[in-house]
Amino acid sequence: MDNYIVESTKYTLGVDFNAETGVLKMTGSSYPENAVEFFKPIEDWLKKYIEEVKKPIRFELKIDYLNTSSTKSLLDIFDILEEYSQSGGEVKIIWYYEEDDEDMLETGEELTEDFELDIEFKTL
Q1: Domain locations in the chain?
Q2: What is the pTM of this model?
Q3: Ranges of the chain whose pLDDT falls below 70
């Protein structure tokens, strides 16, 4: 299976999903014109990875801004990961945030509070 890599832009996250290692990284800001269009291939790749590779996943997020539509898409990704975890897959989420950015810490806590996933919050 191929890796999924998207360079970050002013408006979109950088994505580096490594199929060999199972380390999935998203970095930067996310306020694309069409969040569904941006996140759909990410969700499709993740579903295919889970179906074909079935290895542990380490999902690392280093996000400094999310708009509302990006938040919804990220919740959809967490849904996919939770379903994988509940079916026996190993999932670890690490939400990185700047030490002085309490807003992003709170965003991460609020987004993940309803999920039964192994989640860790770390300062950069």
Answers
A1: 4-123
A2: 0.94
A3: none
